[in-house]
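In practice, a research group might receive sequence data for several interacting partners and want a quick structural hypothesis before committing to experiments. The following worked case mirrors that situation: the sequences arrive first, and a predicted assembly follows.
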Amino acid sequence: MTRSARRTRRMLRMTGAGAAVLLAVSACSSSDSDDSSKDSSTRGSAASDELSGEVTVFAAASLKESFTTLGERFEKEHPDTKVTFSFGGSDSLAASITGGAPADVFAAASPKTMKIVTDKGDAVGTPATFVRNQLEIATLPGNPDKVSSLKDLTRSGLKVVLCDRTVPCGAAAQKALDAGGLKLTPVSYEQDVKSALTKVVLKEADAAVVYKTDVRAAGDKVEGVEFPESAKAINDYPIALLKNARNAEVAKAFIALVRSAEGQKVLGGAGFLEP
Amino acid sequence: MTPLDETGAAAGPRTGGRRRRRARGGAPPPLLLPALIGLAFLTLPLLALLVRAPWRSMPDLLTSAEVWQALQLSLVCATAATAVSLVIGVPLAWLLARVEFPGRGLVRALVTLPLVLPPVVGGVALLMALGRNGVVGHWLDDWFGITLPFTTAGVVVAEAFVAMPFLVISVEGTLRAADPRYEEAATTLGASRFTAFRRVTLPLIAPGIAAGAVLAWARALGEFGATITFAGNFPSRTQTMPLAVYLALQNDPEAAIALSLVLLAMSIAVLAGLRDRWMAAS
Amino acid sequence: MTDTHKSARQAAGSPGPAGEGLDARLVVERGAFRLDVALTAAPGDVVALLGPNGAGKTTALRALAGLLPLADGHLRLDGAELDRTPPESRPVGVVFQDYLLFPHLTALDNVAFGPRCHGASKAEARAQAAGWLDRMGLAGHASVKPRRLSGGQAQRVALARALATHPRLLLLDEPLAALDARTRLDVRAQLRRHLADFEAVAVLVTHDPLDAMVLADRLVVVEDGRIVQEGAPSDIARHPRTDYIAHLVGLNLYRGQALGHTVHVDGGAGITTVEDLTGPVFVAFPPSAVTLHRDRPTGSSARNLWRCEVAGLETHGDRIRADLTGELPLAADLTTVAAAELGLHPGATVWATVKAAQTHAYPA
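A structural hypothesis for the assembly, expressed as tokens:
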């Protein structure tokens, strides 16, 4: 299934409170995408002569699909460059960077994890928020438990998994629950968002509170349910050039691509919101 | 050699004090140097943990209820997993060591597979098998209303899955070294094979079983990947010490170090205690 | 060559009148090796399976015990078919080569193990075991673990353990092999008494002709999986049919009265021994211990000196077995070179000497 087809289907499925927000977002991204094609082609031809070398990007796991796509495009536009990715939990990536891992760019899933790097003085300049991610409820395909709100998750007998409060998606989920004045006892606090989603994919849990991007990446293995409290717990994704970058020029160009309209289009396709 | 010496060999290498002293005096440098490097390699990280431990905040960390919950759960689950491993692992080791059957080599390889399998994969495999929607798990759910994931029993299952091969390998080795003719002697005295196993073989291989049980217990105590994947993470129910350590590491490395030290101290205490007891018994 | 003490007791083994005793043909195949031996014995018989290592003696014993399946043949004990009976259901007791006493159990519990498996209560089994240990003269060692027992004591515990199940067939695998030479003499004599008291069939495996001759009524010599000779020990010793038997069972064995270091053999001659004994004894020494001289030796330190006549000569490989009559009938082994130098021929007169240290005397 192509990405656009999946998006259309998902948009058809959108109902209820979250629909208004989503429609606004998708309207934005589609209008942006029109400019981006022009933009990238001009920029690409200009830069291809100057840029060469390797660039290493440390990025949050949730960025894997979209960043991989962007990396391929970047290499196509600048044939002499090579983009290497290391995807993982933002916290462990931050720990690696402060521990001296050779990286040029860091894209984190939360300002808090980026702060670990900036506090140690390992970043250059102020990190920029390049996308935002919103929570969604992932339910079993067909939503057999008829989950339609965050409150529904507090029903007894329903097995819900959350991310642990120490990781960004768990902190965000807690914020959303607090905003709704809800108290939820999950069966498990998972160590990262992918584990939480996996529990639903494997039908071990009935629902999980994860990111919109994760629901989208899981395809038809789960079904997403929007909830209004998620607006109170939107996660900012900051990106920064690192102090020890060996190839700052290429790194800057990659960050520019991520923040460009073209980059935003790809990220939007994965379910991210514009900053 | 008397038959009694032969059974002594089954108890594992236990060299006399005199021989050990002699070995120390004459250790050749080509052996001594790598040995010392090996020792340093193994102990240095532990020492570093001690050096960097947040001793000042230790008292606060150690008095928190969550730490004690996790520690208690760890000890209970590791012990239960060891018990499960003993009940089904010792007979399995006996089967592998004493009964000739086609494909025995293959079965032995299968038994040791969890040793090389990344524990996380083991956890996923357990979900596939025993999860609510698993191959066997959905029958457990339909017939008995039992679901293992996200329960303390699930932790025990995950730990046993990862730890049992250690026990099986250890016990099988001891069984192979033990003289099977004792079992034969018992049968000529009128004992069924099971009675012979229970009253003769089992006491004879007890040291090997104990060693295997300690290995399995230690492995279960440190189990992380399979546990968090199969049983999830919930304080007081499935959050064992390694899970607590890992999650603490996300935003509070100092707490993680403190927790690790507690786990370390506890394992050393238990292992040392057991060791003393065996020495006294043998 | 003398009569051995056993020859009169049982001429040839055969099951008793009502199918009592042992009647077996054991066929066991293990790879290229094939064992095929027929064994019969009446209650009270003691049969020794004698043979070199790898001949299949122990295999035969294990087949009798049910520890190895029969490929062919049959096994009847007191009329009952045992071919397919598992070892734990056979009325068979085994004394293993190194006894295999359970190291974690006391001597008493080792002996009580069998009765316990046969349904006796713990107290009953222990009472029976205590009785057996008492009979073996080990009442004081009941609570001792096997590792603290001497070789001879361990052997008696093993015998008590095997007898405690009241077997109809007692199997002994090299019962004396694990003992040092000194203990061996005592234990052999004791074992002989216990076997004489035993009312059912006993089969023992040994590679030691002396053990076989002292303990058994009948020898069955096994080589390469087959029986090469069987009969009374004295017959076999007189007429060995293979080099192996000649070499192995060619023992000089005498019965006599001991007084201090001298044994007066029933025929009249005296033998000086190392052992200091009184009363009826056996004296044995191998033919290789005999030295022959054409003239009466003058400077020899040997205390045992007899005048003999050569009755016959037989060649076995590179050795010659001389059959001697005279003061003391005996067999002597010598090299072909030595035989030529001595000019041995039937009817020749020779002097035979044996050092006291090479004789073994033990109570009869």
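Before designing any experiment, note the following. The longest strand of chain A covers residues 123-133. Chain A touches chain B through 22 residues (CB under 8 Å).
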